[in-house]
Amino acid sequence: MVAGSEELLSGFYSNPDDRVDQRTCLICGDRATGLHYGIISCEGCKGFFKRSICNKRVYRCSRDKNCVMSRKQRNRCQYCRLLKCLQMGMNRKAIREDGMPGGRNKSIGPVQISEEEIERIMSGQEFEGEANMSWSNNGDSDHSSPGNGVSESNQPSPVSTPSSRSVELNGFAALRDQYIGTPVSTHYQYLPHLFSYSAHSALVPPQARSLDPQSHSLISQLVSAEDLEPLGTPMLIEDGYKVTQAELFALLCRLADELLFRQIAWIKKLPFFCELSIKDYTCLLSSTWQELILLSSLTVYSKQIFGDLADVTSKYSPSDDELHRFSEEGMEVMERLIYLFRKFNQLKVSNEEYACMKAINFLNQDIRGLTNASQLEQLNKRYWYVCQDFTEYKYPHQPNRFPDLMMCLPEIRYIAGKMVNVPLEQLPLLFKAVLHSCKTSMSKE
Q1: Contact at 8 Å (CB) between 94 and 38?
Q2: CATH annotation of 34-126+143-151
Q3: Quick one: which of 194, 198, 275, 322 could link to 318 by a disulfide (CB 3.0–4.6 Å)?
Q4: Model pLDDT for residues 304-347, shown as the tens digit of each residue
Q5: Which fold has domain 212-444?
Q6: Domain limits, CATH 1.10.565.10, in the chain
Q7: Long-range contacts at 348-352 (CB < 8 A, ≥ 24 apart)
Q8: pLDDT tens digit sequence for 172-187
């Protein structure tokens, strides 16, 4: 729990710079090595999840099925470890069926499955109807997980591939043509391989290249659909005025309403609006609106959110009771939001990249209740390739930029999911804490 406002607002990090690139496994808290099967995790939990699913393991818990997961205790209960993997969103369908390194062709980010489906997996019922296949157990030796969009070297790829050998560029060209719709440009023939260029970047220096015409067209359509005008919600306050919790909460609700209205208007302007059913659009919006608002707040509207809104929240003084009641969920959301802000501030995401990230996040075929998931998957891939094409063209000297951008999406999904568990009355304090810490970190740069 929080001991006081000074600890919450100013002393949250002993040294913020030491935490910028530090990521922790969502399962056990160990140092994470990347995005594996949909979530940020360590090598140990990645390998454990793969072995458990490949070998159709059924575990038992000798306690109450709520064992503590930590780096030192994660091996004590395999049941609870696998349970947490599934609850946090690890995607078992991203594991290659031949047991070889490399994931299967699935979307990025954690998957949402019901408690009933989790119970079927944990009890082994989910495996009973599957064909008896020969899975090879490679332990922790798999080197990539394109099923969640990021390989071991943090290189995203929506196409599965064995990491042990190179895949022909012609194969990528065919896939790219299938989803973007134009022949592959000649400059792709000279680019390092899509899935492993970070390892060869020292051998092949960045080359000046042009942006694929179809990519340019699709990005222009996405940017045109965005409302990039400043937010209209008044966020100015007189000097000396003390903001109450109720007033700040009302402002946050009004701001959320405006941001949500902009997302609804955005959907109607999307270039693929007529391709999908109203039911699917409604399902997608109801499942992703919090993520879309969070993404826009951290990027195109960040100057107002971390400027004007931060000035308002600074005039709000929480009571001691509010501070002591601040939940563990609120503390976790606070920490992750501050990290994500610093990451986006470091990347300086362009409007084109933001528009692509937003479309990719919205087109999530893993959401339950969709009528045409395969169509969404194709659209998702289209804008994945478009975003990669743009970042490689615009930032040739930043080979890790595209994977860095894509790794932010599952983090946004995770934070948005966690915010639901934060009590409404704690949101004013949460926003005050986050905005204060972020504004303080900006002033030091």
Answers
A1: yes
A2: 3.30.50.10
A3: 322
A4: 999 999 999 999 999 988 888 898 888 989 999 999 999 999 99
A5: Retinoid X Receptor (1.10.565)
A6: 212-444
A7: 349/299, 349/405, 350/394, 351/223, 351/226, 351/228, 351/300, 352/219, 352/222, 352/223, 352/390, 352/394
A8: 344 444 444 433 333 3
